[in-house]
Amino acid sequence: MWKQILGKLPRKSQKPDQDSTRNPSLGPNSSSPGSSRVNASSPAAKRASAAVFPASVIAGIEPLLAFKDVPSSEKMNLFISKLSLCCVVFDFTDPAKNIQEKELKRATLLELLDFVSQNPPKFSEPAILASCKMCSINLFRVFPPNCRSSNTSSGENDNDDEPTFDPAWSHLQIVYDFLLKFVTSAALEAKVAKKYINHSFIMRIIDLFDTEDPRERDCLKAILHRIYGKFMVHRPFIRKCISNVFYRFVFETEKHNGIAELLEIFGSVITGFALPLKEEHKIFLSRALIPLHKPKSLGIYFQQLSYCVTQFIEKDPKLASSVIQGLLKYWPITNSQKEVMFLGELEEILEVINVAEFQKVMVPLFWRLGHCINSYHFQVAERALFLWNNDQVVNLIANNRHVLLPIILPALEANAENHWNQAVLNLTLNVRKMLVEMDDVLVMACISNYQEEQQRKDLEVKKRKEVWERLENAASLQPIAGNTAVLVNH
């Protein structure tokens, strides 16, 4: 069928027609050269339209007419006809293929975008159906290989630093802009549109977030956010779908391109949660957000994740202790970069935590901080010691010093004696001086206990060494007899 349709197209040798459709200075409907619009009323454009978009599949008014050329009563019919004309999708992997038809479609898409942007009349149900159909066909259809951006989220990418840009973006961007303006338009009634912007449509929008093209993810982020705001009936479903994306990412694939954008949407959603928080939202925090600290790629979306967690704690301060317990559960023992990020998020939480919640987790928390202070990676040790620059953290420590100083001072003393990095050593001495000023009697007692403990450990090491020496001497005096195996060093 396509061969028969394409056979009706004007030949490439007909240069005057092609040039007239591609020259922006020809015709009243043309725009600046960068827009690549064509004069929809030109003979070549009409021949291309008749060939690629047969009249039998376009119901209603002639789609090549301009909106300004029809009465108001016919504009919605023209809108539907133009949407039908844009339901044909081209292969953009070959730039020289279907040039005339692609430019005609792009010009029509721009007309549609202008129409929905300029206070259109209330969208009828057929117009909503046609709009959703056009967006679905262009955005959700199964494309030929390489026709849309390749999705390597389930496999290895040879060059992770270079995103793949969609060759069809010149059309897709307009479709996304159209969908955004359409969803946010006052002419769109949510109670009618929810029939077509339904669960299936929303799920496909969320699936598209895995694209490698950052421009596409930004468009999707704006659209999904607006859908969430306008269609209250769909909000639980959207939250559930995003949760499922997070679960699959954390516990199965650890590969997804759109985690940061989805978290950015949730950051603004959380601020709108009513108090007291529903159990559903607390479960999302514990089962989706906190486990997102686990993947190796945390750095890509850490800022958005940290913001979401902080928003939850600001909504309900009682959640702070459970969040800290989650951080301790997923603490990155062997990844120094992630450890520095965890310490930064921990400081933000400690700035807003109340005393009661702090006391629930302070013992395991400061045991972990002690290990961070003794880290041989100087950035980890520095970041842990920087916590004492925060007045709120110092106040929490001061109010609970009889429990915390015996935990943290041994780590400080070990640093003062052994740490290789001069900057860490200086910070250690400053923190110890601060603690002495806080409670010098308690600090001296803790230091004395630390020294006694070190002497006891040194004595144990000495005794163990002496025992091994006696055993080795005794073994050396025994004769080698029978089939005893002897290890010979060469």
UniProtKB/TrEMBL annotation:
SUPFAM superfamilies recorded: ARM repeat
Q: Which Pfam families match?
A: B56
Matching InterPro entries = ARM-like, ARM-type_fold, PP2A_B56
UniProt KW DNA repair keyword: no
Please give the function described in this protein's UniProt entry.
The B regulatory subunit might modulate substrate selectivity and catalytic activity, and also might direct the localization of the catalytic enzyme to a particular subcellular compartment.
Q: What Gene Ontology terms describe what this protein does at the molecular function level? A: protein phosphatase regulator activity
Superkingdom of origin: Eukaryota
Official protein name in the record: Serine/threonine protein phosphatase 2A regulatory subunit
Statement: the UniProt record of this protein carries the keyword Metal-binding: no
Region (Disordered) residue ranges read: 1-41
For this UniProt record, the keywords arranged alphabetically read as follows: Cytoplasm
Q: State a GO cellular component annotated for this protein.
A: protein phosphatase type 2A complex
Residue ranges with Low complexity bias: 23-41
- Please give the biological process terms from Gene Ontology that the record holds: signal transduction
Q: Where in the cell is it found?
A: Cytoplasm
